[in-house]
Specification:
heterodimer; A: 530 residues; alpha+beta; Glutaredoxin; 5-stranded mixed beta sheet; elongated; B: alpha/beta; 4 strands
């Protein structure tokens, strides 16, 4: 007994569903619009459909949604034209060439099949079909048709599409293109040669590793979470997972990488500018909430690098995704004159439990029990601030203010967002005097404010503010004595506590061109797959 | 045999050919300031010299809102619709 053909249910041009098998014999005709042999065959299909109507169903299966309608209209097709633009039925029927004609009995068993156009095959199939339908052999004028004409490639075997259909049919959740390496190729070297790394080795993202990584989230692997500049490419969870594998992440880190990329790809963050600027900025990630402990992130000795897998690989995964999917590659769209270590990775948790103040995410409106990422466009590396001698909050925050004046340039004031990482010993000195974060910011602004006069570029240092910045044309000497704060607003000084218990040092990440015309920090809740 | 999942956007890079270089300058010339420091100084000078040497040209000035972001679509469309040539001052 002949094999049963795969069953299917497809929609015709009027939106009605047609199922196969139908309980009657059927002639299935797989076609696509841009195939000349299909076009040549359409009138014959229509003649056969009319002649055998009542005893046998002629079903046309088209591979392009818009093309199907044109094909049916052009040839006045009365038989149903079913939409297989997803190509699942073509794949299930192993269609390699169109047209492919398949004759099936009432139970859906295959009786005959041929590809392209062959007049003798058609004559044989019409004879069998008429017999099955219980009608006399129709009289068909065969003179317009050649003895033989080859068909065209089925859309279901086109490169890229075939692999996706195979993955879908195998039940795999992966849809990205897969690349097979030669037997003698070293996968690590291959990743370098293809320009897929940041200069350090990456873990080859095999399908097995990507599948394991996807276990870290409940989100659909095909969900598009962002459109990534500068290429404006769609970023799926699957692509995030592949880059997270490469960076060395464990599956439980994946939700942090996803949330950070969602935050980075917002309009206000302006990742295009952050990656393309010649000045050199990098998305810098702060992690808050209970997830820090679950991932074993390091918020103590050496928090800003190196040595902790979660800190290092989460930041790196974000950078690799921006590079590989977004196209931000150094020398291409990434055009920083100098770069910096933060271009590899920049992800730091806050030691909330050691801080005398409310943590960053709570300041930004989240609940303490929320796990949150906050991204900043900052200089690609921290600067150390030494103060081993101050014993009061006033003196220490004065030192911090003086040190922070150097961000970008000491003469450039009215500056935007920075990130100040205060170490536990410095936090203790400030906490002993009972100062709030607001008071710390106020003191930094006070200690770093300078008279306008000192901020103007001159022969000693050409960079600086201009009278135009201050909206002044011919200011009086008195007007130029007016003091200008370093930061546009006190809230631009973002403060977290982290670092080792010993050491009277803090660190700061200078900013980039921040605000609505540049980059604005963004926060996102981390959705864990608990 | 190792297989890897492609971590890129899977797009083949597009190569675009440059527009044909005209032999002469005529019509409307857009002078685009991306608002980097001193870009206006450069464009002022170019505008002055072009006006002197080629009085038949129409010169139109445009500004990006910020150099830190790509030009807004509306601005790009307006420049394309209104001019035949663009001179962009990248500056610093």
């Amino acid at each position: 007994m002949a094999d049963s053909l795969p069953s299917f249910s497809l929609i015709d041009l009027r939106g009605s569903a047609h199922s196969f098998p139908t309980g009657r014999p059927a002639l299935l005709c797989f076609v696509k619009e841009d195939c000349p042999t299909c076009a040549m065959t359409m009138p014959l299909i229509e003649v056969v459909a009319q002649a055998l109507r009542g005893g046998l169903e002629v079903i046309v299966i088209g591979q392009e949604a818009a093309g199907n309608a044109r094909l049916a209209q052009r040839h006045g097709l009365s038989a149903p034209m079913l939409d297989d633009s997803e190509l699942k039925t073509s794949y299930a029927y192993n269609i390699e060439i169109v047209p492919t004609i398949v004759l099936a009995d009432a139970r859906g068993a295959e009786l005959r099949r041929f590809e392209g156009f062959d007049r003798s095959d058609w004559q044989a199939v019409v004879a069998d079909a008429a017999h099955l339908a219980g009608v006399p052999l129709p009289r068909i004028d065969w003179s317009p048709y050649p003895a033989m004409r080859p068909g065209c490639g089925s859309k279901s075997v086109e490169p890229g599409i075939a692999e996706r259909l195979a993955a879908a049919a195998s039940g795999s959740r992966l849809r990205a293109r897969q690349i097979e390496l030669g037997a003698d190729e070293d996968p690590f070297e291959f990743m370098f040669e293809r320009g897929l790394t940041d200069g350090l080795p990456v873990v080859p993202p095999t399908p097995e590793r990507v599948m394991r990584m996807l276990a870290g989230t409940r989100r659909d692997p095909q969900e598009v979470i962002a459109t990534v500049p500068p290429n404006l490419a769609p970023l799926t969870i699957e692509k995030v997972a592949a880059n997270a594998v490469m960076a060395g992440c464990r599956p439980e880190y994946l939700p942090v990488v996803i949330a950070a990329l969602e935050a980075v790809c917002t309009d206000e963050f302006n990742i295009h500018g952050v990656m393309a600027t010649t000045a050199g900025a990098t998305p810098t990630i702060v992690v808050n909430g209970p997830i820090r402990h679950r991932l074993g992130m390091n918020m103590k000795i050496g928090v800003l690098g190196s040595g902790n897998r979660a800190n290092a690989t989460i930041g790196r995964a974000v950078k690799l995704a921006l590079r590989n999917v977004g196209g931000a590659r150094p020398g291409e769209i990434e055009r920083t004159a100098l770069g910096g270590p933060g271009k590899y990775t920049a992800c730091y948790p806050e030691w909330e439990e050691r801080s005398p103040w409310e943590p960053l995410h709570v300041e930004r409106g989240f609940r303490p029990e929320d796990s949150v990422v906050t991204v900043f466009g900052l200089e690609p590396g921290p600067r150390l601030i030494v103060d081993q001698l101050s014993r009061t909050a006033h003196a220490l925050c004065g030192s911090l203010g003086m040190a922070l004046e150097s961000c970008w340039h000491p003469k450039l004031h009215a500056y935007g967002e920075i990130l100040l990482v205060i170490s536990p010993e410095h936090a203790d000195t400030i906490a002993r005097d009972g100062w709030s974060k607001a008071r710390v910011r106020e003191r930094i602004q006070e200690a770093s404010a300078r008279p306008m006069r000192e901020l103007l570029g001159d022969a000693e240092a050409g960079e600086g503010m201009t009278l135009r910045h201050f909206g002044l044309a011919n200011p009086s000497a008195e007007a130029l004595e007016q003091r200008v704060a370093k930061f546009r607003r006190p809230e631009n000084i973002n403060i977290i506590v982290a670092g080792g218990e010993a050491g009277k040092f803090s660190s700061a990440f200078g900013g980039w061109f921040s605000g609505p015309m540049g980059s604005i920090s963004a926060s996102r809740t981390i959705e864990e797959a608990l | 045999m190792t297989r890897i999942v492609d971590p890129t956007d899977e797009r083949v890079p597009l190569s675009r050919t440059l527009a044909a270089r005209p032999q002469s300058l005529a019509g409307v010339v857009a002078l685009l300031d991306i608002v980097k420091p001193r870009g206006d100084v450069l464009l002022d000078r170019i505008e002055q010299r072009l006006a002197e040497r080629m009085p038949g040209l129409t010169l139109k000035r445009y500004r990006k809102p910020t150099f830190a972001k790509p030009a807004p679509d509306e601005l790009r469309r307006r420049i394309a619709a209104e001019s035949d040539f663009v001179i962009e001052a990248l500056a610093d």
